[in-house]
Design a protein that fits this description.
The chain is mostly helical and 303 residues long. The chain is 67% helix and 5% strand. The chain starts with a strand and ends in an 11-residue tail after the last helix.
Length: 303
């Protein structure tokens, strides 16, 4: 759980106890005000969330899966190889993600349809491919037992955040009353980015065709990948607007697909998982928890 100035990780150990690690954290936007500007802050926020996410996943893996004590092992060697494995796994996952959601849809649309010069039609079809791949991907991984448990913790996070935002004391009973679906979830963000990419890339392709007279697959891939941070920045601003104006019909329409997807990416947690989420949020605030509890908020960050 991340709060202003810090974040905390709570991990349920094999013996049933919960261990906590809290880290002070100053966002880049606080150190460099220009990075807090609209359309920039979203990309920076995603980078910071990704970096923190990797660190906390590594921590939780190290704590929840301790090394085999029956085998003599050097702690530093184990830690080094664990981090090396995490690094290469992350690089591979990112490469596969870019291939599946960025390159393959462009390739399929180019090879199967003769609409390269029809920017709007081309990007609508490409967007449909991305949505299909995303849904299939979520469907496949959600069948894995470990991922199902991860999605339960995702649901626990949402319930606890909802309870806190509504000024409720953080107890398991209070958190259970709230939904696992949250409008500022990363799932909603991804779907908004998929929609933004259709319109934005259609505009970019139109400008390229108008300027150069043509556009090929290689140039399209390079241009789209280079402009991905811009798409993410626009998507982040739209996500913030939909969260701020949740009562407006347009905001509800934009939020709806992401909320529907959370039927896949969040599951109902049990009480022990909610307890872990509560422990993380309380410890993230540390000694300042009592200053914040009891007030209503709209959180800025997405998970």
């Amino acid at each position: 759980m991340r709060v202003p100035g810090a974040y905390a990780t709570a991990v349920r150990l094999p013996d049933g106890t919960i261990t906590i690690k809290r880290e002070e954290f100053t966002p880049l936007g606080e150190r460099y005000p220009i990075l807090k500007k609209p359309f920039i802050r979203g990309v920076i926020g995603l980078y910071e969330s990704f970096k923190i996410g990797l660190a906390t996943l590594q921590l939780s893996a190290d704590l929840a899966l301790p090394p085999d004590k029956t085998k003599p092992q050097d702690g530093r060697t184990v830690s080094f190889f664990s981090r090396l494995t995490t690094f290469f796994t992350t690089v591979l996952a990112l490469a596969l993600g870019f291939a599946l959601f960025a390159i393959v849809p462009l390739f399929l649309t180019t090879k199967l349809l003769n609409i390269e010069r029809q920017a709007i039609a081309f990007n609508i079809v490409t967007g449909v491919w991305r949505v299909i791949f995303f849904l299939v991907y979520l469907g496949l991984i959600s069948s894995l037992k470990d991922i199902q448990r991860l999605f339960q913790y995702h649901g626990a996070e949402h319930k606890v955040v909802y309870a806190f935002e509504n000024g409720q004391d953080l107890t398991v009973a209070n958190a259970c009353n709230y939904s696992t679906h949250h409008p500022r979830c990363g799932t909603s963000f991804i779907f908004i980015v998929l929609l933004v990419s259709i319109l934005f890339y259609a505009l970019i392709d139109t400008l390229i065709i108008w300027s150069l007279g043509n556009i090929n697959l290689q140039f399209r891939i390079i241009a789209h990948l280079l402009l991905l941070p811009v798409v993410a920045g626009i998507g982040y601003e739209l996500l913030k607007l939909t969260a701020k104006y949740q009562q407006h019909w347009l905001a509800q329409a934009l939020s709806a697909p992401g909320l529907w997807l959370q039927y896949i990416t969040t599951k109902q947690p049990d009480d022990t998982q909610i307890e872990v989420a509560i422990t993380a949020l309380k410890n993230a605030f540390g000694d300042r928890y009592q200053e914040f509890v009891g007030h209503e908020y709209i959180a800025e960050a997405i998970d």
